[in-house]
Structures are given as structure tokens and as C-alpha cells.
Amino acid sequence: MSLQTSSTATPLQLLSMTNGLIIHQALYTAAKLGVADLLKDGAQISSDLARNLNVNESALYRILRLLASQNVFEEKSPRTFANTQLSHFLCTGVPGSVRSILIFRGSEFFFGPFAEILYSVETGLAARAKRYGMEAFEYLKTDPETARIFDDAMTSMSELVAPDVAAAYDFGKWGSLMDVGGGNGMLLASILKTHPGLRGVLAELPHTLERATHRGFLAGELASRSSMEPCDFFREVASGCRAYVMKHVIHDWDDERAEHILANCRRAVPEDGALLLVEWALPEGNAPSAGKFADVVMMLMTGGKERTVEEYRQLLGRAGFSLDRVISTLSGLNIIEALPA
């Protein structure tokens, strides 16, 4: 019996999916070089761009020509390029900038483990362990420049999603909120701005709190309603708040370590409080989801995983919580509300 295939499916359709790799690296190149910043004041010829960037003009032109074919940059006349609405977000410091995220994603730290993807599939272990001989967060302690790139990217990612998360849920009803593993405080700052009656605590490792102080997201008008608490969530999570939030923390870890973190949270959350996980919460079956891409990244990078709502229900249950409800946000992330069981 011959294999039946859809009349719309072709081999070229499948091959075209792999072009995402090429576009990914072209975007990284443009971001790393800062091409969009050079085009802020108007179109430039590729030879001028190449001279300013100290790169090969022909090679740069070919990268820009590809990106222009995807509406990232516009070739207004032969070899003369200008920004578009898309490449605007490659500029430094503009609202919604993804430049730092693309620089991170093109770095060896992010991109390298993809060359070892079969190792993860064969062993179930993070490919990073084979490539670097240590876990992701341990490696960052050894490489300050990569740690800076990672931090900039995570801050930019939080900046993209934090307003949607803050607006989707009534954080203010709890009165006090601790952001556990909250990085530089971008999410907590957005929540406090949206809910003016709320008091917030940023709980992080001491060196991260030093960086958060320098970043200043919780300074100014938020200083009187926020504080910082040293925290290693593998050891202990401090009490003192009614609600606790963690964004993209649990997905970094396998079930055993995730359950350990959640159990530490359970000891801190009061009986009339709540734990709020901001995660992808994968849809069941084969429905498309950005979280399914993130899941493979977690597999390679940290040995963690994205989970379905039911998987979170079971994981939370083992740690002493009951999953109460799931609130979707415009960013695609979900807020998983868990109450003490």
C-alpha cells in the first residue's frame, strides 16, 4: 500500500522550515553589528555601513538583502538600505527593542548547545552539560561577559511581557507580593505600577540584588513600596508576604528540583495566600504554542521543561499546593494561581 500524503504537502515545504536557522543568524548579525542604530537618521548605502562597521561590504549587503526580503530593512535603491517598522525594534533602547535578545540568541552560550541536540535526545540530559561540562547557571558565574549578555536579554524579555502580566491579574488584592527569582525587578516594578496599593519584595541572590539596585527599576516612586530580600530558593524562601510570584523559574528545572523549589515556597506562603507561576502552560495535543519552542530550548540549556496545566497541577500538588485557576495574558504567557492545599 502506498503512503498517502496531503495534496498540499511538498518536500520543499518541509525544507523551507529550515530557513528559520538562516534568518535567525542574519538577525543576530544585524543586531550584534548595530545596523539599525546606524540607520536611525535615514537610509545609507551598504559601502558606508560596511566602512563604519569595519566589515566586508559584499557580505554585509547579502545579509541585508536577505533581511529586506523578509521586511526587515528596506532596499530603497540599489545597495541603499533604510529601517522598517520591524527593524525599528533592532534599535538600542527603543520601547520593545529585541536587540539584546537577538545578541543573546546568536551567542555561543545559547546557540552552541543546538549542535549537540542529539545528545539530549539520546540521554535526556541538557546538551550544555556535554558542551561545557557544567550547568548553565554555573557557567554564567565563570564568564562575566556572557552573564551580562544573558542579563540584558532577560531584562528585555521581561520588559516585553511584564505589562501584560501585570494587567491580567489582580495582584493588588493580596496586599503584599514577593517576586522570587525576579532578576532585576522589571516584572515586580510593572506590577507595582499597575497596582498602587501593593507592597513588593524582590527576592534574589545577593549578587543579583546588587545588579538590580544598579538597574533601578524599583527606585524612585516605587522605593517606598518595595524592598529586597537575599534568597536562594533551593535553600529557603522567606515568609512575610501573602502572595509569591515566580516568572520563568520553574521551567528551568527538572521535576525533582522544581518540586523542591515549590516546597520551599509552600513553607513561606501563608494559609490565606497564594503562589503565582508565570509560565507558558502548554496546550494539550498538537496545538501550536511558542512554549513548545521554549520547551526544546529548556531541554538543551538547563535540563528543564515547559509543562501542561495538568503537569503543573500534579507538580504543585506534590509540593502542597492546589492549582486554583489559570489566567491567560496577551503575551501568551499564563498566570497559574495555586493555593495552599
Give a short summary of the structure.
The protein has 16 helices and ten strands.
Structure description:
By secondary structure, this protein is α/β, with parallel strands linked by helices. The chain has two domains: 11-104, Orthogonal Bundle (Arc Repressor Mutant, subunit A), CATH 1.10.10; 120-340, Vaccinia Virus protein VP39 (Rossmann fold). Helix content is 46%, strand content 15%. The strands form two sheets. The protein has a seven-stranded mixed β-sheet with strand order 6-5-4-7-8-10-9, sandwiched between helices. Helix 2 (19-33) packs across helix 5 (57-69), helix 2 crosses helix 6 and helix 4 crosses helix 5. It is globular, with a radius of gyration of 22 Å. The model has no long low-confidence stretch (mean pLDDT 96).
